[in-house]
Amino acid sequence: MKGNDDSAQHLKIAEFLIENIRNGEYKENEKIPSEHKLCHLFQVNRHVVRQAIARITNQGWVTPVQGKGCYINRIPKPIQYVLSSQTRFSEIMDSQGVQHESRLLHWEKGLSSLAERSNLQIHEDETIYRLEILRYVDDKPISITTTVIPEIEVPNLEHHFDGFSSLYGLLEKQYHFRPIRSRSVFQGCLPVWKDAEILEMPENIPIIQMENLMNHPSGSPVEYSVSRMRSDMHKCLIVY
Amino acid sequence: MKGNDDSAQHLKIAEFLIENIRNGEYKENEKIPSEHKLCHLFQVNRHVVRQAIARITNQGWVTPVQGKGCYINRIPKPIQYVLSSQTRFSEIMDSQGVQHESRLLHWEKGLSSLAERSNLQIHEDETIYRLEILRYVDDKPISITTTVIPEIEVPNLEHHFDGFSSLYGLLEKQYHFRPIRSRSVFQGCLPVWKDAEILEMPENIPIIQMENLMNHPSGSPVEYSVSRMRSDMHKCLIVY
User: Fold this and answer.
1) Is the N or C terminus of chain B more exposed, i.e. has fewer CB atoms within 10 Å?
2) CATH for B2-72 (3.40.50.720, 3.90.226.10, 2.30.40.10, 1.10.10.10)
3) What ipTM was assigned to the predicted interfaces of this complex?
């Protein structure tokens, strides 16, 4: 590996700083070492150290304060999202003692897209409900989910939207079933404009996109959803 | 949602173009519609269209050719990585008819880190092998894995590195066991300098980091690994 040219030097310093912020060696609201100290430590000139600091500033790790130094930003502690057949957002959050909320951003009743109906195994002319749900942890938006359920499984769903707080709570209370996770596909990507706007996040933090197919306890597909989650706020755990 | 100011307009056009490249409406090696056509289609001025094109050029979707137009780049087709207790890279690739290779980049024998020994449930003074394995699909590097196995499970492991092609192949042939996946934790993040260099990838494509704990068929932890995978080359599937 290359390593001694200037361009690699500033990347190494940036990673050294990030590593120390991540592992708690440098603490939130405190300052990283001064330019002077970093020059000495890495035996480089001020220009290289400044490049490293510009990089970690852009990435959201620190905030430089004129004449004072570089303060370490609050790093979101990711929530642990356990992926199992019974996963339910509100229960995962409760078990971790995390303050959470789900808001119904938008809903519509209509026809399905090709991907939706092939996943749900329904006909082209069957009506579906499509809901957009925004999830918050500690009052910060962390994920946006579009979920589709055939109307026949949840007739008059819109009658129960008042005071919406959890889709699965609503399904259990009003329709007496709880979907069971059958398949998930996940990918990493960068946020699109809509994600960044809704999730109030910088565009350079990746998104985990998770596509889920849920079954009715009787065995047939009942819900198809696509969640886009801030990757810095989620850690997904699979137990086999 | 906002939507009519200029800054949002160019983002919308960029997403429209990306969507059409993704869904195959615009094809590899062909051109996207001309600036003129896009201006007309979105009722915006040339400046806004150019901003949109600059954006998707930076993101690696297209290559502008002076005086000719904007050609659509080859989009890597992600491999499907099935996560189950029996997952094995080479078998997944074989089943998808994909040309693949694993190379042993580096190995060492020594003591474990705190994370390694707490996952493997071994003592501080137990020796481990630590391997760095680079995986290729169609001759392109797609992931880098650091894997740790206690020496006691694989005595003289280094005697079998000649002609290395698959770790699990080696374990089965020489040590007569096959690790069973017991737990995975995944997160999305941006590549660090080393990832970008080893995986020969742009720094703005996210990485999926997956931490795996594998058991010996007899039940005790035998392998702890951390893989960093190009997110545009992997689609992970979990079946419950």
Assistant:
1) N
2) 1.10.10.10
3) 0.73
